[in-house]
Amino acid sequence: MAQKVIELPAAATATTENSSGSSAAIFFIPKSVITELYTSGISVGTANTVTNPLDVIKVRLQLARNNLAAGAKPPGMVATGVSVVRNEGIPALWSGLGPSLARGFFFGGARLGLYTPIKTLICGESAKPTLEMKVLSGSLSGGLAAAVTSPIELIKTRLQAAGRDPTAAKTSMGVIRAVVSQDGIAGLWKGAMPGLIRSAILTAAQCATYDEVKRGVIATTGWNEGAALHLTSSMIAGLVTTTITNPIDVIKTRMFVGGKTFSGPIECAALIMRTDGLSGFMKGWSASYARLGPHTVIMFLTAERLRKYAGLQSL
After folding, report:
1. Which residues form a coiled coil (predicted)?
2. Does residue 187 register a pLDDT over 80?
């Protein structure tokens, strides 16, 4: 009786032919997927570095109410940025950059890098994916990435929120020690659920919107792959993504900094609703878009360029 031959991915086959296997595959992961991961990680890391000051300002804005007297109006984005520079110096705008880069490479690389492979796995090589399939692919890649890298996000947020508080940890290891001593190892995943939900929605909105808008622009204008197409698509994707994810981002930030103050995201959301109303969930929107808009543009422009050099298809 004829036996069915099971073909391994090209990269995995290359591993058996090359004793070192270092340039072909890791644990039978196809080389194309590894390339997706590292090109995406570099893209997100680049965007994180450029927009880190805006991320610091966004975190400070979202936490501003905690340090204000009742009825006082929180400062705006520009005033917050000026205050940070005046009181803490320009380097404070890049506080948390280390964990931000680590998170960008691992988390960003996974959530963006797994989007295309997951979409291909769900829809097949030749099928044209629907919007629903794109949203599902983005949700899966974003949620998986966030679940693994949530402690890095917590460390980054604590460092950015520390300011001149003498009791706050000023290094990554200091934050880890403080969290573990207060909440145990599980404390490093405090806020992981809203972070996971946000990441799933963020990736779904960002990738699916970019994907759909890009196809629509091509159909409408006849543009070819290039900077104009990528810039237009990424700017629209950034606007949509910011609006959808801002409420979850506010809850996530409060939980990261609050430690045991909240038993879960529902309690945190209820407190925001009681104290600030619905508008409280849009706190820091301008700073979020000022960061996420350029971040999305830089990320996709860099990713498209790197994918071209790496021989991958455009997003």
Report:
1. none
2. yes
